[in-house]
Amino acid sequence: MTLAALGPEGTISHEVALRCAEGGAVVLLPTIGQIFSFVAEGKGDGIVPIENSESGGIGATLDGLRRHACWITGQITVPVRHQYAVSRPEAKPALLYVHPETHEQCSIFIEDAGIPVVHTASNAESARAAAGHPAGAGAITTLSAASRWGLTVMRADVQNSPGNCTRFVRIGTAPLPVPASGTCSIIVDPLEDRAGLLHAILGVFAGRGINLTRIESRPSRRRMGEYLFFIDADMHPGWQDALADLAGMATIRDLGCYGAIGGDSA
Question: What is the pTM of this model?
Answer without folding.
Answer: 0.91
